[in-house]
């Protein structure tokens, strides 16, 4: 089979059926195809007979197939035989950075998270001597599964015939350009890229992100300059490798994944064969559902039980009424009976302040500037610990946490903390009248938890200070870090 006969419907390796041409460029064609064995979409590159770099592309694809970071596009197959070469890789669905920027710059933290994930993935590729060399907004995707994907590692450079003497520096600068684009909605190049306008310039130099867009945090402005704007570094060292970019962005808190609420189950529909063109959602019953107007055995048993309860209740009521009529209580006794106590709901008590708490660390603090984000009632802001090399905080200390100052001694009934969805957190609730660790008493604890966690003391605890204390941290992008998105403190209500 020659490349000239490649058309929709062609099957490669007796399993990959080409369906739709996505684009063509300089003798290389990208297809959306179907893996007929695994019944999933895949991306396939095919090449014209005169495409000059077939061997380089296939070799690069085979090398990329050994990469294990899930944030890099997976290569499934690559072959060059029978006059036809092809590369089969993962089909990625989602929004590219170019798509996300169609409405303007991203929130700074959002842009930083996307690039931080990409930098960590590319650092993994560089450890295996594989590079990208042509990072563009279309190559960074936020998938429909709420993950980051970097498209085209090694393969895109081979397709374009790109080489460089310093691939680490080229990819670090590419990451800096992506961060600049995410923060400003502009591309730091002489021409438009991916629909983004070129970045503005002053005195022949690109403006920094803070000069282009208001509200860009200073540390992100500095990281961008260190990666891609040498004239604006102000004598700070350059970020010359992807792992250095990843390290600079390591303290950016990862976003809470979007929760998925399944839709309500549809009413039962009689099964139809697939040949009729209708696929129905299968529902499993332990026994056939009861037919209309024919009560099941269980229903008859329940009805009999209810009737017996009613008869018993009537009998007990009649007997009680007879006793009261025969032996009326004296008025004084009736008046002395106390009314039943009313049920009082716990009340939410808002802390007056919060701080990151690390009494045993060198700086005796743990990102205190972020602590307010855990008590602002907003689900998309958060406080997080420093990154550690192990779940046990690198064996450096017994714990770190978030300390709440309630403003005055307060009775504590429950504390509900929303953690990250990564499993593995162990947390304790400590309460006391002093912010010293030795004065805070542990009143509740939970192990191996994630998401929304309720910490309830065995009995109501009282104190001005409430500490959520991490003794074990969950994994987070190759490191270990605790995150708290929201904290709600409940105090017993009063009648």
Structure explained in plain terms:
The protein is an alpha+beta fold and 495 residues long. The protein has helices at 54-64, 97-100, 108-127, 155-160, 167-184, 209-212, 218-228, 242-248, 297-326, 331-336, and strands at 11-12, 16-25, 28-35, 40-47, 75-81, 84-90, 94-96, 140-143, 148-150, 201-202, 205-206, 347-349, 353-357, 383-384, 400-412, 414-419, 425-432, 441-449, 452-455, 461-472, 475-476, 479-480, 483-491. The strands form six sheets. It has a six-stranded antiparallel β-sheet, covered by helices on one side. Strands 12, 14, 16, 19 and 23 form a five-stranded antiparallel β-sheet that branches. Strands 13-15-20-17-18 form a five-stranded antiparallel β-sheet, with no helix packed on it.
Structure described in brief:
This protein is α+β, with helices and mostly antiparallel strands.
Task: Trace the largest sheet across and list its strands.
Answer: 1-2-3-4-6-5
Instruction: Estimate the strand proportion.
Output: 25-35%
Give the overall silhouette. globular
Biggest beta-sheet profile: 6 strands, antiparallel
* Helical segment count: 10
Q: Calculate Rg over CA atoms.
A: 32 Å
**Spans of 5+ residues with little confidence (pLDDT < 50)?**
256-298, 329-338
The computed structural class is alpha+beta
Into which percent range does the helicity of residues fall? 10-25%
Beginning-to-end CA distance, first to last residue: 85 Å
Average predicted confidence as pLDDT: 84
**How many runs of DSSP E, i.e. beta strands?**
23
Transmembrane segments: 301-321
InterPro entries: Galactose-bd-like_sf, Kinase-like_dom_sf, Prot_kinase_dom
Keywords: Membrane, Receptor, Transmembrane, Transmembrane helix
Organism: Nonomuraea africana
């Amino acid at each position: 089979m020659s490349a000239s006969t490649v058309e929709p419907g062609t099957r490669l390796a007796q399993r990959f059926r080409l369906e739709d041409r996505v684009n063509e460029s300089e003798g290389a064609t990208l297809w959306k195809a179907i893996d007929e064995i695994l019944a999933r979409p895949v991306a396939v590159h095919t090449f014209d007979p005169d495409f000059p770099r077939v061997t380089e592309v296939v070799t690069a694809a085979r090398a990329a197939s050994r990469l294990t970071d899930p944030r890099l596009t997976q290569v499934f197959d690559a072959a060059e035989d029978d006059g036809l070469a092809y590369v089969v890789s993962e089909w990625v669905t989602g929004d590219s950075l170019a798509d996300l920027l169609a409405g303007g710059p991203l929130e700074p933290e959002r842009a930083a998270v996307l690039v931080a994930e990409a930098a960590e993935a590319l650092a993994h590729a560089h450890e295996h001597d594989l590079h990208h060399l042509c990072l563009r907004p279309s190559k960074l995707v936020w998938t429909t599964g709420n993950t980051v994907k970097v498209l085209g590692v090694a393969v895109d450079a081979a397709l374009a015939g790109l080489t460089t003497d310093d691939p680490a520096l080229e990819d670090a600068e590419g990451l800096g350009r992506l961060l600049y684009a995410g923060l400003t909605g502009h591309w730091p190049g002489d021409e438009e890229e991916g629909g983004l306008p070129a970045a503005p310039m002053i005195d022949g130099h690109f403006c920094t992100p803070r000069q282009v867009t208001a509200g860009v945090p200073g540390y992100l402005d500095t990281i961008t300059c260190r990666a891609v704007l040498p004239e604006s570094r102000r004598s700070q060292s350059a970020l010359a490798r992807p792992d250095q970019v990843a390290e600079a962005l390591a303290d950016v808190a990862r976003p809470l994944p979007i929760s998925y609420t399944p839709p309500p189950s549809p009413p039962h529909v009689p099964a139809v064969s697939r040949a009729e063109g209708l696929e129905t959602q299968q529902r499993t019953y332990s026994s056939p559902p009861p037919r209309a107007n024919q009560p099941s055995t269980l229903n008859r048993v329940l009805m009999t039980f209810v009737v017996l309860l009613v008869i018993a209740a009537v009998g007990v009521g009649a007997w009680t009424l007879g006793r009261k009529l025969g032996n009326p209580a004296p008025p004084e006794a009736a008046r002395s009976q106390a009314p039943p106590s009313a049920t009082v709901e716990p009340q939410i008590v808002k802390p007056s302040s919060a701080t990151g708490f690390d009494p045993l660390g060198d700086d005796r603090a743990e990102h205190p500037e972020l602590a307010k984000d855990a008590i602002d009632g907003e689900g998309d802001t958060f406080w997080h610990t420093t990154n550690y090399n192990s779940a046990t905080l690198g064996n450096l200390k017994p714990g770190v946490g978030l300390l709440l100052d309630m403003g005055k001694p307060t009775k504590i009934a429950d504390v509900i903390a929303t953690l990250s969805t990564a499993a593995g957190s162990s947390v304790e609730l400590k309460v006391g009248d002093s912010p010293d660790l030795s004065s805070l008493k542990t009143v509740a604890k939970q192990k191996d938890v994630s998401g929304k966690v309720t910490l309830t003391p065995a009995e109501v605890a009282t104190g001005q200070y409430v500490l959520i204390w991490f003794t074990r941290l969950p994994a987070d992008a190759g490191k270990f870090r605790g995150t708290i998105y929201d904290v709600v403190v409940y105090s017993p209500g009063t009648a």
